[in-house]
Design a protein that fits this description.
Helix 10 links the parallel strand 12 and strand 13. The protein starts with a helix and ends with a strand. The longest helix is centred in the middle third of the chain and has 19 residues. The strands form 6 sheets. Strands 14-13-12-10-5-2-1-15 form an 8-stranded parallel sheet. Strands 16-17-18-23-20 form a 5-stranded antiparallel sheet. The chain has 20 helices and 23 strands. It folds into 2 domains: 384 residues, Glycosidases (TIM Barrel), CATH 3.20.20; 72 residues, Immunoglobulin-like (Sandwich). It is of the alpha/beta class. Bound molecules: alpha-D-glucopyranose. One of its GO terms (molecular function) is alpha-amylase activity.
Length: 604
């Protein structure tokens, strides 16, 4: 049996005791895993067909989508009231960011009860109603699976704090200091050490591990009974009729149990936790095969992972026919910036860099499986403001970007508001931000010597809160999002003209263009091509042009987005047919003339 399968099967074996798991993992830590190829590469190029292939997905951030009860926060009944809107857009899969019980330190990514709905969003009955009404409209719901960590308010952690020798304490990483120092020198994603004194035991030498906020203790995946609890929870939702999950921050579940730390990457003497995660991805893979076998696979569930830094060699393990996920988001453009440990050290990612990164990722995925193309999500600023040149941060730019997002190979995710061309919100003071990451980055920037104005300017480019401001439905109070006097996060400054109502019946709006793109993607003539057709990069001809082809069985379609501030010419066949364009495009003697900030889709 190949080494990889051997490893995978012994670690997922029911008979393996937790102690044996520890020993195997410890040996792997000692001898290193680089030599072990976990690769399960596909042998032929045909792809197993799945129910979700060919669908377009949409991400809802429940706090900001639609507030039905006037408390300033979005809720499930609000989402139900917009299902027809989503159906009309052409969306068939909806991902809900967490709606479980939570103290909301990290906006629901700190879960205190995995099997209940937070009252701020409604009840389990509301959720069941959402599932049923979505199904009536042909929409599948996927939830957010946050299982690298839970909330410090979860009863498991409370029990661990009450008695560090109890069963639940084994669900976490609780350690003593080493030589009078913290157990290791890793830096949490939200700043400061990953180690914190165990609450209630401040006078003792006991620390617990948290890769994110200190209210998000990491779960110990090396303890089998904990894994079984998590798998039962996943099955509870899948049995209920949820179609799958987006899987949060999952590669972080792998830990080096000797907690050796890493060479410092900053003046604070610490090293980013993500460097340790990157080193241990093969260990995570072992657990992920087990999770898939025990949960998603038997339900034919969809798993869409948040996995950064996946290289070509291991991609098949993630998204191949025998991979442990159905698909993963394409973060290749975002990763260009992720390597900077603080916002203030960011480097702008222009659309040419975006193109290079995304095209390389598309090429990598072509023979293996599907990625999920995105422009933005709840962790990122608005893509139109971030990646496009200033002159293209307009509805025209949003349309051209839309063509790229919707027609690239893979399952596109549209983030709420993207379909109307939402841009970054203008925040006037640090007090207008909500996100803990924004506040931490503001502090870090000031400590690094930036002025308050400079630090605020950076947040106005980079903050996650840009994606989290309320959805803009119409030009009434709070953009029709809520009847409350104050909403939980400020409303975008342009809502009087930038909103769904203003675009719904306008055939030239960004929203109408998204609908046309999705309809083209799903049209009987082009559905197979846009679903299974290969991606091929085309000659960019200028810095800010994003051109690619989709090719299947001798059929070829070109998608060309021009973000330059002047027209570009592009050679095609003399008898090519324009399928869709965002502005009037000329086709003469086999040459397209695409106006500035516009896109065209052409069948050759
Ligand atoms: C993921 C989520 C992000 C959250 C983090 C910790 O990256 O997308 O919003 O803060 O995980 O759960």
């Amino acid at each position: 049996m190949a080494q990889d399968l051997w490893l995978s099967s012994i670690l997922s074996s029911q008979q393996l005791s937790p102690l044996c798991t520890y020993i195997v993992i410890a040996l792997l830590n000692i001898f290193g895993l680089e030599s072990l190829s976990l690769s399960k590469q596909k042998e032929d190029s045909s792809m197993e067909k799945k129910w979700w292939h060919g669908k377009v997905a949409y991400q809802i951030y429940p706090k900001s989508f639609c507030d039905s009860n006037g408390d300033g926060v979005g809720d499930i009944q609000g989402i139900i009231s917009k299902l027809d809107y989503l159906k009309d857009l052409g969306v068939e899969i909806v991902w809900l960011s967490p709606c479980f019980k939570s103290p909301f330190v990290d906006q629901g990514y700190d879960i205190s009860d995995y099997q209940d709905i937070d009252p701020i969003f409604g009840t389990m009955e509301d959720f069941d109603e959402l599932l049923a009404k979505a199904k009536e409209r042909g929409i599948s719901i996927i939830l957010d699976l946050v299982i690298n960590h839970c909330s410090s308010e979860h009863e498991w952690f409370k029990k661990a704090c009450a008695d560090p020798n109890c069963e639940e304490a084994k669900y976490f990483f609780i350690k003593k200091s080493k030589d009078g120092k913290l157990p290791d020198n890793l830096r949490s994603y939200f700043g400061g050490s990953v180690w914190e004194k165990l609450p209630g035991h401040e006078d003792e030498d006991l620390y617990y591990l948290h890769y994110f906020a200190k209210q998000q203790p990491d779960l110990n995946w090396y303890y089998e009974p904990l894994r079984e609890k998590l798998f039962d929870m996943i099955n509870f939702w899948l049995d209920k009729g949820v179609a799958g999950f987006r899987v949060d921050a999952i590669m972080n579940i792998a830990k080096d149990l000797s907690f050796p730390g890493l060479p410092a990457d900053g003046a604070d003497g610490m090293c980013s936790a993500n460097k340790m995660t990157a080193k241990l991805s093969d260990q995570a893979a072992t657990f992920l095969y087990e999770m898939n076998d025990k949960t998603f696979k038997p339900h034919d569930g969809l798993s869409v992972a948040e996995a950064f830094g996946v290289n070509q060699e291991s991609l098949a393990n993630y998204i191949g026919d025998n991979g442990f996920f159905s698909t993963i988001f394409d973060f290749s453009a975002r990763e260009l910036n992720e390597k900077y440990p603080a916002y203030y050290r960011y480097r702008p990612v222009t659309i040419d860099k975006w193109r290079e990164a995304v095209f390389a990722a598309q090429n990598r995925a072509n023979p293996i499986g599907f990625l999920c193309p995105i422009i933005e999500n709840h962790d990122e600023p608005r893509g139109v403001s971030y990646y496009l040149p200033t002159h293209a941060r307009t509805p025209d730019g949003a349309k051209a970007f839309a063509a790229v997002n919707v027609l690239l190979r893979g399952m596109p995710f549209i983030y709420q508001g993207q379909e109307i061309g939402m841009t970054n919100t203008k925040f006037n003071s640090i007090y207008e931000f909500d996100d803990l990451n924004a506040k931490d980055n503001y502090k870090v920037a000031l400590e690094a010597g930036l002025t308050e104005t400079q630090a605020l300017d950076i947040l106005n480019i980079e903050s996650r809160d840009h994606a989290r401001t309320p959805m803009l439905w119409d030009d009434s109070k709070n953009a029709g999002f809520s009847s409350a006097a104050v909403t939980w996060l400020k409303v975008h400054q342009d809502y009087h003209k930038l909103n769904v109502a203003a675009q719904k019946d306008d055939p030239n709006s960004v929203l109408s263009f998204y609908k046309q793109l999705i309809a083209l993607r799903k049209s009987p003539e082009y559905k197979e091509l846009f679903t299974y057709g290969d991606f091929q990069a085309l000659d960019p001809v200028a810095d800010y042009v994003v051109p690619f082809a989709r090719v299947l069985d001798g059929k070829t379609v070109y998608v060309i987005a021009n973000f330059e501030d002047s027209p570009v010419s592009y050679g095609v066949n003399a008898d090519s047919k324009i399928l869709l364009s965002s502005k009037e495009v000329q086709l003469q003697d086999g040459t397209l003339t695409i106006p500035a900030v516009a896109c065209v889709v052409v069948a050759l």
